[in-house]
Amino acid sequence: MYVCSCFGVTEQQVRQHAATGACTPRQIASACKAGTDCGNCVRRIQALLGRGACPRRELIENGADPLASGRTSSGLPPADAEEDAAGPAALPEAA
């Protein structure tokens, strides 16, 4: 079944990207563009990822500590995770 009709991305493709480490809608978008045009599929992608399509989520739910490796629950280093949540960091102004 298609998840993203704009780019022809299927549920199976989202699951494959999740299996290779894309565990957020933003990471799925980077992998296959799903969710980057009209945005109607983002909630469906979130639902697929929330249903265990992401192997890292299973590790977290089973008690593995994602911070033990110096990474946050999103799989990014702490500084990158803050940027991921808030959007790109502002660039310093040129002097």
From TrEMBL:
Protein name: Bacterioferritin-associated ferredoxin
The organism's place on the tree of life at top rank: Bacteria
Entry keyword annotation includes Iron: yes
Phylogenetic classification of the source organism: Bacteria, Bacillati, Actinomycetota, Actinomycetes, Kitasatosporales
InterPro entries: BFD-associated_ferredoxin, BFD-like_2Fe2S-bd_dom, BFD-like_2Fe2S-bd_dom_sf
Positions with biased composition (Low complexity): 86-95
Gene3D superfamilies in UniProt: BFD-like [2Fe-2S]-binding domain
Pfam family, one: Fer2_BFD
Keyword Transmembrane helix attached: no
Family: Belongs to the Bfd family.
Chain residue ranges for the region called Disordered: 64-95
Swiss-Prot/TrEMBL keywords: 2Fe-2S, Electron transport, Iron, Iron-sulfur, Metal-binding, Transport
Domain BFD-like [2Fe-2S]-binding span(s) in chain numbering: 2-50
